[in-house]
Amino acid sequence: MNSYIDTKLVTLNSKYAVKNNSTYNSNVYFNYSGLLKDEHDIIQADIILLNAQIPVSFYNLNDTCNTLNFTINSVNKTIVLANGNYNSTTFIAQLKSSFSSLGYSITIVLNSYTGILTITSSTSITFNYSGSTMFRLLGFSDTTNYTGTTIICPYPLNLTTIQQLTISSSILSTNTNILYTISVDKPPFSILIFNNSNNITNNILRNKALDSIDIQIKDEYGNYINFNNQNWTLTICLNVLRKYNNIEKYMMTDVLKTQPLAISANENQNTDKQDIKDPELTLLSS
Fold first, then answer.
1. Does the pLDDT at position 118 exceed 80?
2. Which residues pair with residue 178 across a beta bridge?
3. Residue 61: band (very low, low, confident or very high) from pLDDT cuts 50, 70, 90
């Protein structure tokens, strides 16, 4: 066999990363000088995400879906709900309270069979999709304004949490930047544990040298996850396929054939005698 695999295990803990999006902890950078060098014996290098321990510290109502723009009496208003994990009861109560704080009395009723909201106002109200991020939760279409004194949402209330985490890296890129996609199958405030027991999805690296690693973690809509300052851990396996260095073997006779011929000691002595002249004889002869 003329090749072998050089394996390194790299543990990435967001606690020790350079954080590009602050306490979100979902766009980070690790310094690993000399992790992989561009060496002549490397045939290829690939990486595998072996395991992950990720806190389910993100909310179903977060910065990506907490804003509602509306117009009432020709006045544009905005509601921003506090981030958190809501069920239908707490969500409706918080939304009604937000309208009330602006001086508007709004009735919101949830159909227990269909999950669809009916919103009633004493004055005609328009919910504007432009600038609103809450439409998907309420059951509205993301491209339609809704106007009236009684508005029935076309789709059910959607308070499901983030459903999947996409782990990416531009430095560890292969054909795509995606290292792995993990389903979120744990409840809030627990730990999502992933083990790649079958070594599925090993990615051949395009970079020939590695001095750093970047990691991005996003939801199914491409939004950065807000881990709320909680740390996660990933373990990556770096497999480097190397070729053995070929060492040429020579017989001793072959080595001798390559050496220049040596002059014998006697020949050296004779040569020295011929070259040495007696200074007295030289003087007399002159």
1. yes
2. 168
3. very high
Full domain range(s) for residue 148: 67-152
Both 169 and 50 in a single domain? yes
Instruction: Report how many domains make up the chain.
Output: 3
Last residue within a domain, chosen from 134, 152, 170: 152
- Do 202 and 72 share a structural domain? no
Residue 102 has pLDDT above 70, yes or no: yes
Quick check: 283 pLDDT over 60? no
State what percent of residues in the chain have pLDDT above 70: 84
pLDDT at 54 over 60: yes
Least confident of 43-47, 100-104, 198-202: 198-202
40 lies in the same domain as 76? no
The last residue of a domain, from among 128, 152, 176: 152
pTM metric for this prediction: 0.81
The CATH number linked to 181 is: 2.60.120.1100
Do 173 and 238 share a domain, yes or no?
A: yes
